[in-house]
Specification:
single chain; VC0802-like; Rossmann fold; seven-stranded mixed sheet; 10 helices; elongated
């Protein structure tokens, strides 16, 4: 067994386990195992940096400390105390605890937080021969998850969630999550040598994530991570992984993207966010009603997240937009179209069934991702 092997897990939105597992395998992660809402994997210290910088579809990168049955507070205490916390937590480091309990005998989150904290303190007291921890150093956020009486303990390496790329300090109404937008680009097979269009661009998230995907730009290059401050991980690891990620970029690709929105403030916000993301040279945006949409070029991909009943419009108004989309999104050779919507009436209003559908979650809203492929490009 490798002495520097680290067991890791990345939680994700339901429906994104497959794409997340695939990108982890491509970046060299070992023992990749997708489960509902998360993907387990392993690697050396460099994998912590690599995954944080490069994964598009995961929400965090967590060190897996261990898992064990916990039907009582005594079992929880002893199980936590038995784990090797000293591997990651120094005598001056801060280690706050948070977690959740689902379908377990131990149902009180505050009580479990207290037990986990006490158990870690007792473990570290013995390892460092001290009785008091000032916790003035870098943060190691401890997480526990109790589900069906099984306790899982982890340490967060990411800090802010990985969907926070750093380019969107402000957003238009009802923005789509960055990790979901990236997955939509993946499912629709956005190409580096074709056009991309979002006729409901909002704050530009779909346009930006499509550009990052097509140009193979690591989504985490514009931000920092909690584990960058840890003395257990050499700073040179992060430097090397940033350089490696930049070397994989396809800046010479011909990809271009265009967005439009009926709201001029949204258009301005799109251009600001694109500049912060470093892809302003690839993205154009203008004020335009979706009824005036027209494709440009011989081939490309259209993806949009239209306003719908549960977020911004009443159902009748949303259905009018779906009918308009059905008219302007023509079946045209070389072009594909995709729309995310929670409304069961979407395809009826759009006027034709999708080539393929995927169940996805936009926040807590269960949606269908309706994809319309050119006949020659169907999966």
């Amino acid at each position: 067994m490798e002495t520097n092997r680290i067991e890791l897990v990345s939680p994700c939105l339901f429906g994104l386990e497959g794409p997340l597992a695939g990108e982890l395998r491509r970046m060299g992660a070992a023992d990749v195992r997708p489960q509902n809402g998360r993907v387990f994997f392993a690697g050396g210290p460099e994998m912590i940096a690599r995954a944080n910088l490069r994964i598009r579809y995961g929400e965090r990168v967590l060190v897996r400390m261990g898992a064990f049955p916990a039907r009582s507070f005594d079992e929880l205490f002893e199980g936590v105390r038995a784990l090797p916390w000293e591997r990651w937590i120094g005598r001056r480091d801060a280690f706050p605890v948070k977690g959740s309990c689902v379908d377990s005998k131990l149902a009180s989150v505050p009580d479990c937080q207290s037990i986990v904290k006490k158990a870690i303190v007792e473990r570290l007291k013995g390892k460092y021969s001290v009785q008091w921890f000032e916790e003035t150093g870098p943060v190691r956020q401890v997480q526990f998850f109790l589900r069906k009486d099984l306790a899982s303990l982890m340490i967060d390496t990411s800090g802010a969630g990985l969907h926070k790329r750093g380019y969107r300090p402000a957003a238009a109404q009802a923005p789509i999550r960055e990790t979901l937008a990236a997955a939509m680009a993946y499912f629709s097979r956005v190409r580096h040598d074709a056009a991309f269009y979002d006729p409901c661009c909002g704050s530009g998230t779909l346009l930006i994530e499509a550009a990052l995907y097509a140009l193979n730009i690591a989504p985490g290059l514009g931000r920092r991570f909690s584990a960058e401050h840890w003395d257990r991980l050499d700073a040179s690891v992060w430097k090397r992984e940033r350089e490696s990620a930049r070397a994989l970029e396809k800046r010479d690709a011909s990809f271009s993207a265009k967005g439009s929105d009926i709201d001029p403030a949204a258009v301005a916000l799109t251009l600001e966010n694109a500049a912060r993301a470093g892809v302003a040279d690839r993205i154009r945006a203008e004020q335009r009603d979706i009824a005036d949409f027209r494709e440009e070029g011989e081939r490309g991909c259209v993806i949009c997240n239209p306003p719908y009943g549960e977020r911004m419009l009443d159902l009748k108004s949303a259905e009018r937009i779906y009918r308009t989309m059905g008219r302007v999104f023509r079946s045209r050779r070389g072009w594909s179209y995709a729309v995310i919507s929670p409304d069961d009436s979407f395809e009826r209003c759009f006027g034709r069934p999708a080539s393929r559908r995927r169940k996805l979650y936009n926040g807590m809203i269960r949606c269908q991702y309706h994809m319309y492929f050119d006949e020659a490009e169907k999966p």
